[in-house]
Amino acid sequence: MKRKIIIGNWKMNPNTGKVASKWFQEAARLVSRSKKTEIVICPPFIYLDNLSRIRTSKIKLGAQDTFAENPPAGGGPFTGEVSSEMLYNLGVGYVILGHSERRAFGENNQIVNKKIKGALSAGLRPIVCVGEEERDESHKYFDIVKKQVKECLAGISRDSFHKIILAYEPIWSISTTKARRDAVPDDSREMAVFIRKTLSDITTPAIANKVRILYGGSVNERDAEGFLRDGRVDGVLVGQASLSVEKFIEIVRICEALKN
Ligand code: PGA
């Protein structure tokens, strides 16, 4: 059985390090007795250093992006970039890659693929986001997600697959999408099964089974239980609701209370 994982993606929030530290300290206190759930918070880069100094064995840190290459000397002339090695050296364990909000800036599957390879070789666990913009009646969205999975994971060594987390985030359900719609556990289940099959086709069923698949897209404390119980996923990636420590902790609590 894979361990369930709850990931908070703070996106470009909050506005001050003070608020970030207060959130983190409070959450660390509230989850100190959690047993089953892996908890990861992905704040903006600039808060990672401070948050890594707050003592907790329960909450791990993730970044929201990384540089696509690992320069041989560990650093290099890449203004504005942060390398996977720098993140790893700070104690960061995870990195969100291929988020639709970054893809909207022009990031494509090939760039995501490079970033995944760089992250893995530096010792980070990539949280790879895939998901369609719309659900069309001819079901082309399956092809879109299959292409994303295949191209993002092209050339990744089979030994590394167990470190990869795939987050299915349909853009039409993300909180910041205009005229968004709610997804339901059936949407998540259907796609999680399809992604697992795609992974199986590019590796083996046993390897595909080791990859954790998450659902993300406006998950909150009211609907998290449905996704976690009936969505065939190994966890959830939470954006908006992770900005509230109470809501996020409630989602962790729901996960802890699940039977399996
Ligand atoms: P949301 O964001 O929960 O606010 O929809 C999820 C994400 O974009 O990672």
TrEMBL record:
Source organism, top-level taxon: Bacteria
Chief location of this protein within or outside the cell: cytoplasm
Catalytic activity: D-glyceraldehyde 3-phosphate = dihydroxyacetone phosphate
Name of this protein: Triosephosphate isomerase
GO terms for MF: triose-phosphate isomerase activity
Annotated family: Belongs to the triosephosphate isomerase family.
Pfam families: TIM (PF00121)
Coiled coil: none
The enzyme's E.C. designation: 5.3.1.1
CDD domains attached to this UniProt entry: TIM
